[in-house]
Amino acid sequence: MAPLARRALLRLGAGAAALAGIPRRAAAQGKGKVRLAYLQLGWAATEIIHKEDLLGTRGWRAEYQIVPGAPTGLLNQFASKNVDAIDMSFALAAKAFEDGVPLKVTGVATAVLGAIVARKGAGLTKVEDLKGKKVAAIVGTSTFFDIRALTLKGYGFDLQKDTQIVTATAPPDMATLLAKKEVDAIIAWQPITDSVVLRGDGVYLAKQIDLWRKATGRASGFPVHVCYLVHADFLRTHPGFGKDLNDAQRDAVEIWYGKPDRAKEIVADVTKLPRNVIDVAYREMVKMLHGLPDEQVDTLIAQLKLNKEFGFLKSDVWDSPDRIRKEFFAR
Hints:
The chain has helices at 3-21, 24-27, 46-51, 71-79, 90-98, 142-155, 159-162, 171-179, 192-199, 208-216, 232-237, 241-258, 260-271, 275-284, 294-309, 321-328; strands at 33-39, 61-67, 85-89, 103-111, 114-119, 134-137, 164-167, 185-189, 202-207, 224-231. It has 16 helices and 10 strands. By secondary structure, it is of the alpha/beta class. The strands form 2 sheets. It has a 5-stranded mixed β-sheet with strand order 2-1-3-10-4, sandwiched between helices. The protein has a 5-stranded mixed β-sheet with strand order 7-6-8-5-9, with helices on both faces. The chain is globular, with a radius of gyration of 23 Å. Strand 1, helix 3 (46-51) and strand 2 form a beta-alpha-beta unit. 49% of the residues lie in helices and 18% in strands. It folds into 2 domains: 26-112 and 222-328, 3-Layer(aba) Sandwich (D-Maltodextrin-Binding Protein, domain 2); 114-216, Periplasmic binding protein-like II (D-Maltodextrin-Binding Protein, domain 2, 3-Layer(aba) Sandwich), CATH 3.40.190. Helix 6 packs across helix 10 (208-216), helix 12 (241-258) crosses helix 13 and helix 13 crosses helix 14 (275-284).
């Protein structure tokens, strides 16, 4: 071999060796930047996507932001285009869509997390026992609206009219009211409901999944509490991101169920909740989800129809499954 050719071959080999030494994640950062924000208490495995950088392994230069507090703050950041993708209550996502926020639902994250928890010793043993009782709730949340609609459809009475609603401003307020015996029950969601039960102040009266089964007669499928939203402008520029986000969520779900100790470690790091609360919430949750399979979309459309029937949603788009599939979802 000629000296010049040998030197060229050596340079090529050295370059390949250098490339082989670059971590796969670093070498893959070719799809651009994405800003993913999520709720600190979202309980949707997004924490795992963040801490394991499961978007980075798919070629994205991902910036992750943990947002404390209520969902509205996160939704406002998304609407203002300060972030590209978020996890969000499915019902609030639909409300934002009909209010004109340019979004697409690209996948689901977790099944319903809500529950009615009765105060221990209050004498409540079934849902109908709530009539006339003091019930703490954050009335503006999708969990309260969903549980109210399901109770109205499944049991024939209105939680907002047939009970004494005590308005709370945040989940910890409800826990305090129950502990002080100022209310007979609370309507809340994980992990607050689990912490109340673990502490011994309350007992589960009904979980949202059971209310759903009774109200709709659907024995299969999982109604969704949290979904993923991607800004429509970002998705137009990066049409493959929705699939990558769903694949990242799938990997996160595999860690959730396959490596529970690691999953709980990550959740503890993000939420700052005590480990015993996380253990109970992990055990009690309905189902961690990913993707948008056909059966799941059918369930989501049924949820939207129910929310329209009981007044939370107003737009005519929710009357047309074809329009929902085309305009609301990105598959």
